[in-house]
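Case 151 in the screening queue. Each case pairs one protein sequence with one candidate compound; here the compound is FE2/S2 (inorganic) cluster. For every case the pipeline is the same: read the inputs, emit a complex structure as tokens, and attach any notable structural observations.

Predict complex for case 151.
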Amino acid sequence: MYKEIFSKYEPTKDNLIYILHEIQDKHPQHYISEDAVDKVAEYLKVPANHIYGVLTFYTMYSTTPRGKNIIRLCESPPCYIKGTVNILRKLKALLDVEIGETTKDGHFTLELCACLGVCGNAPVMMINEDVYGDLTEEKVEDIIEKYRRAK
Ligand code: FES
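Case 151 output:
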């Protein structure tokens, strides 16, 4: 995997975030492992500490394994006003997890995020690359069920 990703990018520091992005996307558990950090450090000839600095600065990166499906619930004001709290409560109950946790079966990770750019459909969440808006508790239940069936 690393060889294929590195072949697309010159070994310059400017490409660090793109490389990390791609590694995280391609990893089945959607995270950056210690091994990945070492490989990237070697390729870009930068200290591993520099890479960990970037990983902790940007919330989009994870250094711990995550679920097959990443749920990102928008918590920015327009969504919050339209009911993020109720949707979050429903998701926690359905999945039996807290924010930042992964379900025991490794199928879902629940995260909060900032505006997804579709505030007109608040409240909004993303699951992997798919956006779901105008959420209600009933709608959330159906969506989660759809992903469970797709196991
Ligand atoms: S505030 Fe939630 S999508 Fe913009």
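Case 151 observations:
- The first strand starts at residue 69 and ends at 74.
- The chain has seven helices and four strands.
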